[in-house]
TrEMBL record:
InterPro entries: Cys-rich_flank_reg_C (IPR000483), Leu-rich_rpt (IPR001611), Leu-rich_rpt_typical-subtyp (IPR003591), LRR_dom_sf (IPR032675), LRRNT (IPR000372), Wnt_signaling_inhibitor (IPR052286)
Species whose genome carries this gene: Gymnodraco acuticeps
Pfam family, one: LRRCT
PANTHER family (UniProt xref): LP06937P, TROPHOBLAST GLYCOPROTEIN B
Positions of the LRRNT domain: 39-71
Gene encoding the protein: tpbgb
Keyword Transmembrane helix: yes
Signal peptide (from-to): 1-39
Sequence intervals crossing the membrane: 315-335
An annotated GO cellular component: plasma membrane
The protein, known as: Trophoblast glycoprotein b
Gene Ontology terms: biological process: negative regulation of canonical Wnt signaling pathway
Keywords: Leucine-rich repeat, Membrane, Repeat, Signal, Transmembrane, Transmembrane helix
Keyword Calcium annotated: no
Taxon lineage: Eukaryota, Metazoa, Chordata, Craniata, Vertebrata
Positions of the LRRCT domain: 253-304
């Protein structure tokens, strides 16, 4: 009986102790939350080491951010410009900065100088027109840069190129340039990104890959889906072969299935790098549309489509030239209509006189009396 009583008392004490411990932990958790929210900016929500200022129609980065902020979300606002005054105090614990959807146009020099441990930067869904090559610290720690849907004009490529070639992003491992209007990438745009392993160029209107564009970075993942690629240059395939661990995505491009795609077909059948190779289909000619590339027989591919296109273009050009000549001719006739009218009257009168003389001679020849009279008159 004593044993049961002792055991019961011990268990009861343990239960009470665990309750006290639970209450204490809950209190400490609330205290930590309150302390972390100390100095939280207006229109922002602060919790633990996260600050969220989302969809508040802000026109600048809020100041007075908690010093222990690690994750900062300032998205869906109207911040068109960020500069050195955007982060006036040092935030040494900040690693993740999200500034998407702010209609941002300008990123000034030294804007991130007070964020020495920044690792992930999201500038997607903006309209960046000016991006200083001095925006990042010389020895920064940025590993992920998201610029998706931020370059809406091909002329802004110079701005993007100055940032990527600044030499300040040596630790960058992932770059997202998807859903932009890039068209053609400069051949040396990625040369300074010595640590880049993941590159997304999906849906960026790219029409070709120039020689040397992807040679420098040690890529492991490359996304080229949904662009405007018609074929792959031989130099690009050679560069891909130099990176045997590279995984490539190419679906969604309008591949032209003619005799010029032979080398690409051979490469696709012998390479294991294209992870979506079974989804690659022909866009033209019409007879091969939606035909999987792996099912094509190179010996049966023709180049008539190109010749037909050239002939069609030539016919259109010839028609335009003839139409222009016709318009010019009609214009000349209109401007000289009075002179042409006089000329036509003169021709009419000359024809009338000639016909009257011919008619007179005919009457003489047909009447013997008039014929003899004409002979006597001649004598």
């Amino acid at each position: 009986m004593r044993l049961l009583s002792t055991t019961y008392g011990r268990e009861r004490g343990e239960i009470q102790g665990s309750k006290h411990m639970s209450v204490m932990m809950h209190f400490l958790f609330l205290l930590a939350a309150v302390l972390s929210c100390h100095g939280c900016p207006d229109k922002c929500l602060c919790f633990s080491q996260t600050v969220k200022c989302q969809n508040q129609d802000l026109d600048a980065i809020p100041h007075s951010l908690p010093a222990n902020t690690k994750f900062l979300f300032v998205t869906g606002n109207n911040i068109s410009h960020i500069g050195v005054d955007s982060f006036p105090t040092s935030l040494e614990m900040l690693t993740d900065l999200y500034l998407s959807g702010n209609q941002m146009e300008t990123v000034d020099a030294m804007v991130f100088d007070n964020l020495p441990n920044l690792v992930r930067l999201d500038l997607s869904n903006n309209d960046i027109q000016t991006f200083s090559g001095r925006a990042f610290l010389l020895e920064n720690k940025v590993q992920l840069l998201n610029l998706s849907r931020s370059v809406h004009n091909h002329s802004s490529m110079d701005v993007l190129q100055s940032v990527l070639q600044s030499g300040n992003l040596v630790q960058l491992t992932a770059l997202d340039l998807s859903n932009n209007d890039l068209v053609i990438l400069p051949d040396d745009i990625f040369n300074s990104l010595s640590s880049l392993v993941t590159l997304s160029l999906q849906n960026s209107s790219i029409i070709t890959i120039q020689n040397g564009t992807l040679r420098a970075p040690p890529l492991l993942e490359l996304d080229l889906r949904d662009n405007s690629l018609r074929d792959l240059p031989a130099t690009s395939m050679e560069e891909f072969d130099l990176k045997p661990a590279l995984l490539i995505r190419l679906s969604g491009n309008p591949w032209r299935c003619d005799c010029f795609i032979d080398d690409m077909l051979l490469w696709l059948k012998n390479s294991t790098q294209v992870v979506d190779v079974h989804n690659l289909t022909c866009s033209d000619p019409e007879a091969l549309r939606r035909q999987p590339l792996l099912q094509l027989v190179p010996a049966r591919l023709k180049c008539l489509g190109d010749m037909e296109g050239v002939l069609e273009t030539s016919y259109v050009f010839l028609g335009l030239v003839l139409a222009l000549i016709g318009v010019i001719f009609l214009l000349v006739l209109y401007l000289n209509r009075k002179g042409i009218k006089r000329w036509m009257y003169n021709i009419r009168d000359a024809c009338r006189d000639h016909m009257e003389g011919y008619h007179y001679r005919y009457e003489i020849n047909s009447d013997p009396r008039l014929a003899n009279l004409s002979i006597n008159s001649d004598v």
